[in-house]
Amino acid sequence: MRLKVDSNRCQGHTLCHLVAPDLFALSEIDGHASPTVDEVPEEMIGAAQIAADGCPEQAISVYQAD
Amino acid sequence: MPVKPTIPFDHHSAEFAKDPNAILANLRQGCPVGWSEAHGGYWVVSNYDDIATIARDDIAYSSHHDPDSDHPKQGVMIPPIPNPSGILEMDPPDFRTIRRALAPFFSPAAVESMRDEILDLTTRCIDEFIERGEADLIGEVASPVPAMLTVRLLGLPMSEWPALADVFHRGAYLPPDAENLTEIYDLLGGMYGQLLEAVKERRAHPRDDVASALASLEIDGELIPIDMAAGNLQLLAAGGIDTTTSLMGHTFMHLDRFPADREVFRSDDPTKVRLDCEEFLRVYPPVPGMARTVTTDHEFGEQEFCQDDRVWVAWSSANRDPGVFDNPDEIRLDRFPNRHMSFGLGAHRCLGSNMARTVWEIVVGEVLKRLPDYTVDHAAAQRYPDCGEINGWISVPVRFTPGQRIHK
């Protein structure tokens, strides 16, 4: 599964990093999130989904690569 | 003209201050997009998804503050305040330029580097009353710590913190009737004058602080107007001072009513404490709602919105929308997902959220560590008579077993 943060939507709530610190890095400048991986390791798909569900801006997608 | 569904609602009223959650729950069920005749008239939007739609659309719903234009914009407060409140009352693109310049001062990394300072301020405040066995947690710790931190961040003299705390504390809870408005505007005007001077001084002698960053900022190749820079400093003061105070006030009251929840802060897991903070934010939002001005005629929630109409989006109502939160009236520590709107949503989302969470964690943690058996004197605790802009406590008097100072 792939992981994406829509940078136009992310406003730096930082909740994704709180619940899945290995999957998201926060910008030193404004705290906005970016994924640390392109491909989510099998055992972390659950955590990625939890982070996506908890994003107030609905900026995170976990999706099947084509 | 279509008939507007008029509702008897005023977020500055005594009824709202008394039981905002019941009033908003009724609106969500019966009239999620209603029209209030108070303060010249405004729409009240109370469902989560509707509020999210409005908060994310800066084109149809403007935050701008320019009452003198052909289509008057009145910013995000109802009734409007006298001077525009910095980027909170600006739209993109200028909004973005200024926000980008301010962001590094409030990033998670920047706030992390302030931990020792926040702890030191907290320790010194608690030292002042710890031997006494009684205190007012608002006036003696929850108000001073954010105020001192903000004054230091703005680069004002430390001696200014009580005056600044007073402006925003009283400015927040005095109901905006004619008599009080004069006093509030005088308080704000005096502080604004001081901030104008601070900007001029920094422009001449820049330092490494947020006031200097604002004073020297260029927008489209031109130096920022002095009043715009001062307005943004005023916003940082307004945002930093009474909001976190209010969250801490509610937290202290909650931990008195539900002493078992005090265990939370004895947790060694920082992630859990952070998640708990989000739940306190959801249930006790310091800012119950904010306004926008409609920029084009359009239909919204089966109602006809007209250009220049004012709209108030109730963050505190979104936070208890049962469509989004299971058992929304129950406080469930470490709830997740917890997509609350207490920091707002969209581009204008609270710039100081990382600071607010860290101050809350340190101050509440230290209070529980040093006066673990505190009890609130409910007969003497005073709630804000007006919770329209900020929902908080004037005072939270407590008694506890006296302890020892840390600094002699």
Description of the molecule:
The complex is a heterodimer of chains A (66) and B (408). Chain A has helices spanning 15-19, 45-53, and strands at 2-5, 24-26, 33-35, 60-63. With 66 residues, chain A is α+β, with helices and mostly antiparallel strands. In chain A, a hairpin with a 6-residue loop joins strand 2 and strand 3. Chain A is globular. Chain A starts with a strand and ends with a strand. The model of chain A has no long low-confidence stretch (mean pLDDT 96). Chain B has helices at 14-18, 20-30, 48-55, 94-102, 108-112, 115-130, 137-142, 144-154, 161-173, 178-204, 210-215, 226-257, 270-283, 315-318, 353-370; strands spanning 33-36, 42-45, 61-62, 65-66, 73-74, 134-136, 218-219, 222-223, 290-294, 298-300, 303-305, 310-313, 375-376, 382-383, 393-395, 397-399. In chain B, the strands form six sheets. Chain B has a five-stranded mixed β-sheet, covered by helices on one side. In chain B, a hairpin with a 6-residue loop joins strand 4 (65-66) and strand 5. The mean pLDDT of chain B is 94. At the A-B interface, helix 1 of A face helix 13 of B.
Question: Can you give me a brief rundown of this structure?
Answer:
The complex is a heterodimer of chains A (66) and B (408). Chain A is an alpha+beta fold and 66 residues long. Chain A has helices spanning 15-19, 45-53; strands at 2-5, 24-26, 33-35, 60-63.
Characterize the overall form of chain A: globular
**Major β-sheet profile of chain A:** 2 strands, antiparallel
Please report the two chains with the greatest interface, counting residues with C-beta closer than 8 angstroms to the partner's C-beta. Answer: A-B, 19 and 25 residues
| Contiguous helical run count of chain A | 2
Q: What spatial order of strands do you see in the largest sheet of chain B?
A: 1-2-12-9-3
What general outline of chain B do the C-alpha atoms trace? globular
Distance between the termini of chain B: 71 Å
- Rg of chain A is 11 Å
Number of DSSP helical runs of chain B: 15
Share of β-strand residues of chain A: 15-25%
Helix content of chain B: 40-55%
Name the assembly state: heterodimer
Largest sheet of chain B, described in full? 5 strands, mixed
Low-pLDDT windows of residues of chain B: none
Structural class of the helix and strand makeup of chain A?
alpha+beta
**How helix-rich are the residues of chain A, as a percent range?**
10-25%
Low-confidence stretches of chain A: none
Name the strands of the widest sheet of chain A in spatial order: 1-4
Kindly provide the radius of gyration of chain B, computed on alpha-carbon positions and rounded to a whole number of angstroms.
21 Å
Mean pLDDT reading of chain A:
96
